[in-house]
Task: structure prediction
Amino acid sequence: MSTIEQFFAHQLTTAVGQPLRVAVYSRLAEGIRSNVFPLGQALPRETELATAIGVSRTVVREALMLLEEDGLIVTRRGVGRFVVDKLPHIGLEELQPLEHALTESGRSIEVRQLEFGIQSTTDFTSNKLSLDAAANTWFREAVILSDGTPIAIAQEHLPAGKYLSDIHPGIATSLESLAGESKTLLAAIIDRFGPVFSSGVCTLAANVAGETRAGHLDLKPSTPVLVLTQTAEYEGTPLYLAKFIVSPEVGSLSIVQSTAS
Result:
């Protein structure tokens, strides 16, 4: 069985509410990034992809449009579709710590902890982490700096007590030591336990810094900031929640769109 045949042997799966074209996009993007479809090489034809994945040509065509929009493939008129010669660097489309995405942009990154401890749940944390209103959460706040300049605030939450220990005893036992590392909690967890989170969702919103956040970021309270809200699941259970307040000092962040409404 060839590498491509092995790649397509795994049944396509979709998350709840995820459009089929997005699932196909994600599968093909995975194949491109893992070199199943080598850089600069032609992709199989639409009909071949549709047959291999088990979807219609229309779905494949829409997924290919997304891949081209996001810089993973190019179309050569009269010839076919090809993987690009050089991939765009991975940004927020992959579930990864924010400081990793910033480092890939050539930045020198430092994470400084501001606060770590247990808090009562709020409407925000109980809904995002599917917790009872009476539950507690671990909360860790840190500033992310680039070459000494604060560029983001990381506010991370994980369930506390049995809500965490029943799901992942290793993280529960190690969390306080992980919080002591000069990393976001997400980075510390992944470095210690590997890619434990099966899926994640990152939403973006615009806001202003406000008094407290502006103080941490050396900004005026009225300065616009980007707010990234990140959730991640472990074996189907929400286990990680974060809000990143990103300063304009960051510049640009890469997002290869892998979800659509």
Notes: The beta strands are 73-76, 80-83, 109-120, 136-146, 149-159, 199-208, 224-234, 237-246. The two ends are 36 Å apart (CA to CA). Confidence is low (pLDDT under 50) at residues 257-261. The CA atoms of residues 3 and 36 lie 7 Å apart.
